[in-house]
Design goal:
The protein is of the alpha/beta class and 472 residues long. The protein folds into three domains: 1-60, no CATH class; 64-317, Rossmann fold; 323-457, no CATH class. The protein is built from 17 helices and twelve strands. A hairpin with a 5-residue loop joins strand 9 and strand 10. It starts with a helix and ends in a 15-residue tail after the last strand. Residues 9-48, 415-454 and 456-472 have low confidence and may be disordered.
């Protein structure tokens, strides 16, 4: 357990504030060299303070000390957007030195809204301290394949990545994008036909990679990445000038320390199963960083998990949403509390949102046919429903048909007001399993639309959704 004083200092470190003395100094009251972690790591032998002889001195673990040096170098030359971003970059850079231990190779995306935000400088620091850097501003997929397949797996660093994946160049570089996606997980090789030997060639793709550029990277890359959103320095924010000839030797010396420390623990890191605050691909991406933090000890395990949650939340909040998922979310808003809506009413409500794209979908906005096509992949189809007068029997959509898709693809934020209708298990029980495009006839279910009119199934009318492709 941390004392109150240690907890306060931990919070200050997490916010990126300076802490007198830092980890591994003296805990004696009145001593200027105040320790941060005295008493928390009992496995480290205590020894007298070098300054005052206090017996409460706790030496800092080797890994934590090396990561602390890397943290200091990053903040010396670059203004990062947050303390969590600094933690993430330090851990990602360290993790490159233990690539043989990982099952996943997280990407590091360094993006900025404009030029002169420090992204290239940050990439310079990463290049100087990471494992076997291979930096480029443009590279053919064939060259990258050959580099990754060499004796030493490099750390691929791509500057000006927006010129590769943006605009008219995007389609021409789909092979490189596919390589970066596949290389996130071990044992996902590329297979090519070698005409010279008339045989299949298996080319490794697994390697850690960092990409820097203006604007967002392709969403499939950012989904596999730790995303750092750089910004231009504000007035009063200063950094030390970086000169390659003068300053790079210190970076390479630190890289050698990282390689020596982590190289001695590769077997331990390969067996590591750190407790993760994330799930699915985000957990895969952050697991190497958290494993390095746990090995380092000191404040790093807590800082790593805190950074993982904060940066993943920020990335997901800023991620572009596909038209289909945006449509699902907007349909939920349009339904309100209604159990069913006529197609024409649902479309009118979608078009009425000035910030949504549906009024611009086609010359007159989204059509019934386009709505049906977008929803078909979620097994959501319109049907003939008998509404109360004056609407009568018309095509429409049932809320229950959306419940499973809402729960899976656009769940409400945790802690928010939960819609009791949005329950995939209840949706499954209401709609028995269907085979192919067969839809089961259902019993008449009373409900109320937003117009307060009764709604029932029309059980004497054949289901037309399958015949006409689901058009409303």
């Amino acid at each position: 357990m941390m004392t109150d004083q240690e907890g306060i200092l931990h919070d200050r470190l997490a916010r990126g504030e300076a802490v007198p003395g830092g980890p591994g100094a003296c805990a004696r009251d009145g001593c200027a060299h105040l320790t941060l972690w005295h008493g928390e790591h009992g496995r480290y032998r205590k020894r007298p303070c070098r300054q005052c002889g206090c017996p409460s001195y706790v030496p800092q673990p080797e890994g934590a000390a090396i990561l602390g040096q890397l943290h200091a170098i990053l903040t010396r030359y670059v203004i990062l957007p947050s303390a969590e971003a600094t933690t993430a970059v330090a851990l990602w850079t360290a993790a490159t030195h233990a690539q043989p231990a990982w099952q996943h190779a997280p990407r590091l995306v360094i993006r900025a809204p404009e030029k002169r935000c420090g992204k290239s400088r940050l990439l310079d620091i990463v290049e100087g301290t990471c494992h076997a850097p291979l930096i480029t501003v443009n590279a053919s997929p064939a060259a990258v394949y050959r580099a990754i397949g060499g004796e030493v797996t490099p750390t691929l660093l791509v500057d000006e990545a927006d010129t590769i994946f943006g605009g008219k160049n995007a389609d021409a570089n789909e092979d490189l994008r596919g390589l970066l996606n596949a290389g996130h997980q071990r044992n996902r090789p590329a297979i090519r036909w070698d005409a010279g030997t008339r045989s299949l060639e298996t080319i490794p793709t697994f390697a850690m990679a960092a990409l820097a550029g203006i604007g967002a990277m392709p969403d499939t890359i950012e989904d596999r990445a730790v995303v750092i959103r750089m910004r231009r320095r504000a007035p009063g924010e200063t950094v030390a000038p970086f000169r390659h000839r003068r300053d790079r030797p210190a970076l390479t010396a630190l890289a050698a320390q990282l390689a020596r420390w982590l190289g001695a623990h590769l077997a331990e890191l390969e067996r590591a199963e750190p407790a993760m605050p994330l799930e699915d691909r985000a957990a895969d991406t952050w697991e190497p960083l958290v494993a390095v933090a746990d090995l380092a000890g000191g404040p790093w395990p807590g800082l790593a998990r805190h950074a993982a949650v904060v940066l993943t939340t920020d990335r997901d909040a800023a991620a572009s949403v596909s038209d289909r998922i945006r449509l699902l979310a907007d349909c939920r808003t349009a339904f309100g509390d209604a159990e069913a809506l006529p197609t024409i009413t649902l479309i009118a409500r979608l078009r009425s949102d000035p910030e949504a794209p549906w009024s611009d979908h086609g010359p007159d906005g989204i059509s019934a046919r386009r709505l049906a096509v977008l929803l078909a992949d979620y097994d959501i189809r319109s049907e003939i429903i008998r509404f109360g007068e004056p609407i009568g029997r018309v095509r429409g959509y049932r809320r229950g048909d959306f419940s499973d898709a809402w729960a899976r693809y656009c769940p409400r934020p945790s802690g928010g007001i939960r819609d009791t209708h949005d329950n995939p298990s209840s949706a499954a029980s209401r709609h028995p399993a269907r085979h192919g495009s067969i839809r089961d006839a259902r019993q008449s279910v009373p409900g109320v639309t937003c117009e307060n009119t009764d709604v029932t199934d029309v059980t004497d009318t054949p289901r037309l959704g399958v015949i006409n492709g689901g058009a409303a």
